[in-house]
Design a protein that fits this description.
ABC transporter involved in vitamin B12 uptake, BtuC, 14 helices
Amino acid sequence: MSLKKTTIWQPLILIALPILVLAFSLSVGRYPVSIDALASALWAQISGGKMTTAQLALVRVRLPRTLLAMIVGAALSLSGAVYQGLFKNPVVSPDLLGATSGASLGAALSILLGARAAGIQFFSFLGGILAVLLVALLDRLVSRRASSVVNLILCGMLVSSLFNALVSFTKFVADTETKLPAITFWLMGTLSGTTLKDLGVFWLFLPACTILLLVRWKVNILFLGDDEARMLGVNITLYRWLIIACATLLTSLSVSVSGNIGWIGLVVPHFARMVVGSNYGKVLPASALIGSAFMLLVDTAARMLHTVEIPLSIITAVIGAPFFFFLLLRSKKGFVS
């Protein structure tokens, strides 16, 4: 575990990064907005003053979308970082225990049955939770005495494979004219159509994020291994399942509001470690801040690069795959530790 000395400027830069990207994202688009116009629109919203049509569009369409992008990016990056520490594996991502596959199945089934946006989000979230509960049940059956990291990973792979097969079957039986395109587009990830009401999901994200940040120092101990953690008096089972529960909540919520967006939870924690070192007390908040800025840049590119909005997972894969290959080249051992 490599440690880096933190300068006074480092946390300030990390905090300023998503704020600057937010200002940039709000000011660019099909209809560019100057900083003055942006400030006046935000002030009118806060003070309750009368707004023009352009200001209403900015505050009620572009602003909710950008804020939700930041929330989703922070949640996925935080989940990926804590999973990489918990499972001591640098190639772990938030979908390790099947939360993403379960959420995708819930969304696909709800679209197939004709549910509306709220129903799709609810069943997607429920599917992610149920998938991880199934992993926990299988792990309990396999590990008679105590849960192990290896068994959890294997059970997660099993559940993910099963749920992905069910998603494929759902697409197979879906109507090719209406349902199948809707399912396919949703699974590729999008934040289009976000409204101010959708930001209410922030209050569900907040408790899980807070808990993970409060126990981030325990991740360093769990990273050392079970025997070392027991010697230091850490309740391994309690903290392991607490972390898994919070990460599952964040992942399921993210997929339910934005669809399946890959690579962010895998790549951003590596970038955070390049900046602050491998101390998870610093990696977790750094991952959340960098992930929020990165997701916001991806969403901005998705709505600007083409006349038709590009699915988010396409852009994250195009950026994430080359960057991850760079990390492999950079590491002498073939992985980043």
